[in-house]
Amino acid sequence: MNNDQPAISIADTVAKGLRRRRAAEIRLRIYGIAAISFVLMALVVLLGSIVSKGISAFQQTHIAVLVNFDREKIDPAGSGKIEDLRRGDYDGIARNSMRAAFPGVSGRRNRRALGKMISSGAGDQLREMVMANPNLIGTRQRVWLLASDEIDMLNKGYARRKPDGSATKVSRRQVAWYDALVVKGAVERHLNWRFLTGGDSREPEQAGVWAAVVGSALTMIITLMLAFPLGVAAAIYLQEFAPKNRWTDIIEVNINNLAAVPSIVFGLLGLTVILGFFGLPRSTPLVGGIVLALMTLPTVIIASRAALMSVPPSIREAARGLGASSSQVVFHHVLPLAMPGIMTGTIIGMARALGETAPLLMIGMVAFIVDVPSKFEDAATVLPVQIYLWADSPERGFVEKTAAATMILLVFLLAMNAAAILLRKKFERKW
Amino acid sequence: MLKASPTWGRILIIVGLAVGAFASPAQARDQIKIVGSSTVFPFSTAVAEKFARSYRKFKAPVVESTGSGGGLKLFCAGLGVRHPDITNASRRIKTSEIKRCAKNGVTKIIEIKIGYDGIVLANSKKSAQMKISLRHLYLALAKVVPEGGKEGGKLVPNPYKRWSQIDPSLPNVRIEVLGPPPTSGTRDAFVELAMENGCKTFAHLNAIKKREGKRKFKAVCHGIREDGHWIDAGENDNLIVQKLEANPNAFGVFGYGFLDQNDDKVQGAIVGGTSPTFENIAAQKYPVSRSMYFYVKKAHVGRIPGIKEYLAEFTSEKAWGPDGYLGEKGLIPMPKAERARFRNAGKKLQTLRD
């Protein structure tokens, strides 16, 4: 019979099919690359828009004027005591120095408009200078005073100049004075230390992010201190020691369900139990940390169990074979090998906790807080809450502050992840 | 088995320490706690900051934005360091709230009116300024309206899709209004001041209150349409301003402060023949304006440091006066006599019903 026929036809079919399969293979790769490039593009757009909006917040406009540290205004009684110097009329000195720069300006309205060009924080700036060096009293110094947020917006190009010579929130006269100062070289943008080291303010030019950074750090410390040991202990017991019966099944299902509970529910729990029953103080990192720990706990338990499960049974058997007890097996052999996985899980949970605002709303951490917290029981807010509060403020100057605070939040998150990766590298073992 | 490893012990100690923090009792407070309306929040925080600057010995008050109703609920929960000292409200305290306060021992409440706020209907400056009466505004946004927009008409679901269908003088564009959600105090005020008063211009709807009771009246006059012509835009008024800029045909509902800060981008509609300007709201000519208040527990004065000084700062001319710093934040000041009256009430710690 004809033996060649089927052999040729198989080769043909294979050859035909081969092209199709290769094409499918290439298509799949293209889909993959397209998906990744889409995600990358989204990331670039997101970061790009945040950075382009926020970068200007790290600099603040200052106006240079000759300040007369008038003894009459600072220390009218002439006592020279530091407490008396603190109470001096520094706002008046700041206003007077602006008037001295434009001696031709007269009339109450005009003088007010001139004074409005510098920030209401300029007086505090002068007070701090005098506090640091009382010898300044009676001298004249050229000082870079903080400009008001309207002038800052004009300087950064966010305020639109109108055809009639005025600009958004800046009158025609103020624009003219501003332009005159620019010509004299008396307007400069300096690094915004206040933003990086100060607390919140209602004035955009004086608002700082540091109180929120510290609040976030304090809250995260409490969360980590509670969620990590409790979560790992629960996972070890459930995975290594607990008998497999209906009770442990119920517990397991419940833990998995808890991981999917909306975060606001934990806030309600915090409100009724931690604030209501235990009576802990409202608006504090202590309470915020506890609530976020409860929220993070299921994530840590699930990740830790998965990590423990992935340790090969041969390790346990070998340790047992050498006479180790159950707890020695776990703590000397299994846990160290599972540690990298446990840490990954913990950091995922912590990252989620860092970005939460909803549960904190219920326990009063969504609040205006000026002072930088120093204890777990101080009133504090956290970075995402600060971002939310600024995004909600009417002043134009807060737009860039909002974006800049988002940048700080991202840096905080990256630092946290980097720490986790370093620790993981240290603990990682291969088998 | 557990004793075999030192690690367990270490973990237990850490957990114990963390849990031990639970047990620490609530301590005396050295910081004023303020809760309440999100509308008063910008003013309250500005005062809190100035207060902290002028008195170095006091810590800056903590101000929380909980809404007027939520704030009064917290405020009335009791006396003592665990409860707030002051609550802000964008409306007056209700009798039911005074009763609830009294039940929890909060009997002496100092009331301070701080000024006015206007609610504006605004659109992008790229479009023409709108002129609208309260009656037409009600017809455009209510859930149910009298048939044909006529006196005595049967109530039907709102049929209007374009402004010009209500009245030819209004623009021929789709009705699209972005406004605050039902949880907001601004929404409450808008409904009470604009919708209700517009509704009352129909004699037969106004009669419902007497004939069929308050509840039915509210259902008719307070209902806002849910068919996509009114859009709940969240509490973020900045976002509404951005959306109005992008869509010149849309309108937005928000507080006067945002109009004032963004007057290069948006303009306020003339409502009932009056435009929403500083002067008109201060003179209470503009129909959609409301008073703002804050309430202080007299029993806390002297216990929590700084309350008297905070009151003095808030009621000083440099704060709430015509040229004060609160004016820059969008507060519309009260007339001089009224300011003097409430400043006095603050100084003398006059309580409600005194």
Description of the molecule:
The complex is a heterodimer of chains A (431) and B (354). Chain A has 431 residues and is mainly α. The longest helix of chain A is centred in the N-terminal third of the chain and has 51 residues, at 4-54. Helix content of chain A is 65%, strand content 6%. In chain A, strands 2-1-3 form a three-stranded antiparallel β-sheet. In chain A, helix 10 crosses helix 17. Chain A folds into three domains: 4-55; 59-196, no CATH class; 210-427, MetI-like (MetI-like fold, Orthogonal Bundle), CATH 1.10.3720. By secondary structure, chain B is an alpha/beta fold. Chain B has two domains: 29-117 and 290-348, D-Maltodextrin-Binding Protein, domain 2, CATH 3.40.190.10; 118-289, D-Maltodextrin-Binding Protein, domain 2 (3-Layer(aba) Sandwich), CATH 3.40.190.10. In chain B, a hairpin with an 8-residue loop joins strand 6 and strand 7. In chain B, helix 2 (41-54) crosses helix 14 (307-314) and helix 5 packs across helix 7. The longest helix of chain B has 18 residues, at 6-23. Chain B is globular and about 60 Å long. Residues 1-6 and 21-26 of chain B have low confidence and may be disordered. Classes of the chains: A mainly alpha (431), B alpha/beta (354).
Task: Explain briefly what this protein structure is.
Chain A has 431 residues and is mostly helical. Chain A is built from 18 helices and 4 strands. The longest helix of chain A has 51 residues, at 4-54.
